[in-house]
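Tip: read the tokens left to right.
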């Protein structure tokens, strides 16, 4: 069964051993900044869209792999006997348009993902304020009145 986990600044989909064999991937890793929307779909089968590109489909029982559609590609891991699916909609630079999974506890998974997303957004805002973005080694930068940058 696929698990959605936040690892640092990335959303990681850990797959079971048989899912790894079918999809031929160990995990799916997406930057947390690429997450645009997280929601729960009560009927997991309605969340699946497009046609299978790579993976396994047993109608009404199992759907694992990459699905291709007009809007891009989705990574899907939906199983029978799961009440709801967690849909994570993504934007660039993510390799997929959406991740759809049926974890054991969808409510707790969505709450954890939203908490991690808000922490990442707060950290990003703080990095912009203090100038500790990607190009800076991590020290705040003060702008003196004459316009030259000096480390604090």
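Filled-in amino acids:
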């Amino acid at each position: 069964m696929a698990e959605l986990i936040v690892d640092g600044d990335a959303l990681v989909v850990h797959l079971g051993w048989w899912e790894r064999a079918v999809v031929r991937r160990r995990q799916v890793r997406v930057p947390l900044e690429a997450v645009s929307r997280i929601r729960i779909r009560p009927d997991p089968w309605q969340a699946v869209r497009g046609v299978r590109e790579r993976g396994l489909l047993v109608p009404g029982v199992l759907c694992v792999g990459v699905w291709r559609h007009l809007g891009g590609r989705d990574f899907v891991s939906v199983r029978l006997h799961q009440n709801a699916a967690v849909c994570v909609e993504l934007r660039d630079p993510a390799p997929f348009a959406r991740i759809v999974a049926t974890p054991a506890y969808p409510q707790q998974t969505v709450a954890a993902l939203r908490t991690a997303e808000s922490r990442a957004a707060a950290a990003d805002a703080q990095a912009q304020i203090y100038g500790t973005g990607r190009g800076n080694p991590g020290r705040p930068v003060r702008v003196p009145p004459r316009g030259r940058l000096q480390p604090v």
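Residues 106-130 form the longest helix (25 residues). The two ends are 49 Å apart (CA to CA).
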